[in-house]
Write a structure and sequence with these properties.
Length: about 400
Amino acid sequence: MKGLVSSVSESTIKKLPKADLHVHLDGSLRLSTLIELAQEFKLNLPSYEEEGLRELVFKDQYKDLPDYLQGFQYTCAVMQDLQALERVAYEFAWDSYHDGVIYIEPRYSPELLKGDKLKSHEIIVAIDKGLKRAEQEINILIEKENQSLADDNSAIHPNFVYSHIICAMRMWDPEQSLSTIQSAVLTKEKHNLPIMAIDLAGPEDGFPAIDHEDAYTYAHKHFLYKTVHAGEAYGPSSIFQAITNLYADRIGHGFHLFNAEMINTKDPGKAKQYVENLVQYIAERRITLEVCLTSNLQTLPELKNDPANHSLPKMLEAGLSVAICTDNTLVSNTTVTKELMLAAKTFDLSQKTIKKLIMYGIKRSFYPGNYLEKKKYIDLCSKYYDSVVKE
Ligand SMILES: [Zn+2]
């Protein structure tokens, strides 16, 4: 895994074709937009200056998870409007593209954005409008760039692509999770939108994933992909439940995957075996871990603010499929490029490992096209990747 840190510069990583598979739209607004919308809707903010908000709300370090979550009351409040939703989605797509991210899967819970005026399907449609408009504009630029390469041997720039992930919440009544997913499926069918997957977010401890089995079974039977936030605050058994009961194709975070001591048994040998079996299963099935380093540093006190304490090297040593993601670009003040740089520097990752991490993001995406189209896209991304590295 060891490489020469100096061999991968930030400007190169920025140019590489990347995916962001784990990013909450309501945690990824532009700060300037949050302020403008709050002023427009006459909503209270602790400060109306970017600097002030960075000092008071969207900080580099947080006391704990509740402190981290503070900012969402403001972002969710300004998003309860169809035009604002469209704008936030549009800007998020452009901001991603400017970071060299060509594939995004913004996730959100329509229930948390509707306030008392909006309906779930209106929220999804408005967000899609923003994403689609950005996608079209970005792909015109990419097309122009590719045309100028026409006689050259250079690899062509892959298109910008997005899909939606709809979130249910762990602390909800399971009925609410089910109805959220049912409504997402109806919206997908009625409006022909790239709603590809569902997620379960919210606090793990005390709110087991298994409670939301009906929502996941419904999604499973409607051919939606599944991801679950698990192993962030709770142990390997939470990840096991996500995979076995909720059919998870991917796991959000999975930070505690290797922590046998979190398993409820008096027999340490048994616990160790359980973790080994689970890791083997995850590796074999290519269940992908969506790792968000900065967010973990900000919410998991056991990391002691040092990324070197993260379980990412263990995941890589076990041959697991891992994608590096942002979680929340505003709340964690980060980008995919920044996250990859942090991983590369902290663990002295080789160029080969960096390519693996980036390509897992594309390969294990919930791509809104058929298998052959996805294969072609992966191939394009890989060729373009090599051409950027060559430069
Ligand atoms: Zn998350």
